[in-house]
Amino acid sequence: MKVYPHLWFASEAEEAMKFYTSVFKDSKVVGHIDLPDPELSVVRFELAGLPVAALNAHSRVPYNEAFSFLIETGDQPETDYYWNALTSGGGKEQPCGWLTDKFGVYWQVTPTALLQMIADPDKEKAGRVLQAMYKMKKIVIADLERAYRG
């Protein structure tokens, strides 16, 4: 048994697949599934080893924050890379490291440092980091570190 995300698009599944596999290293196109209705199609791909399927089905229910892809980044340049790539071409910045890409899919670009700081047993330090994060769109690690130090 396998469990993996399945995205529903009006007609942009192939375009989204090409975009996502260009953004993520170690990604690849797995293939296409032709369905009996020529207006419907499914593409399959991997994002850094995560299998994903995408469907073209004419209409689509809009995506929302209830489902997002989380990218855990190692440093500021990696955070900037994914943030800039996924907001390019019409993506929208959202608060606290969230964004929607040009297809309306939600993403969280989250530095490991943020996760470590908010998990600190010192609730004051963790609280200052959360307050700093609440004021950000793209996460800036140096600003979080300043808040952490007080």
Could you give a short description of this structure?
Strand 3 and strand 4 form a beta hairpin. The chain has 150 residues and is of the alpha/beta class. The chain is 34% helix and 27% strand.
- As for the CATH topology of the largest domain, it is 2,3-Dihydroxybiphenyl 1,2-Dioxygenase, domain 1
Cα-atom radius of gyration: 18 Å
Number of helix segments?
5
The secondary structure category is alpha/beta
CATH superfamily of the largest domain: 2,3-Dihydroxybiphenyl 1,2-Dioxygenase, domain 1
CATH architecture of the largest domain: Roll
Q: How many β-strand runs?
A: 8
User: Helical proportion?
Assistant: 25-40%
- Spatial separation of the terminal alpha carbons: 48 Å
CATH top-level class of the largest domain? Alpha Beta
How many distinct domains?
A: 2
Layout: helices, strands, pairs:
Layout: E1 6-9, H1 13-23, E2 28-34, E3 41-47, E4 50-56, E5 69-73, H2 76-87, E6 92-93, E7 98-100, E8 106-111, H3 112-118, H4 123-134, H5 141-149
Parallel strand pairs: 1-4, 5-8
Antiparallel strand pairs: 2-3, 3-4, 6-7, 7-8
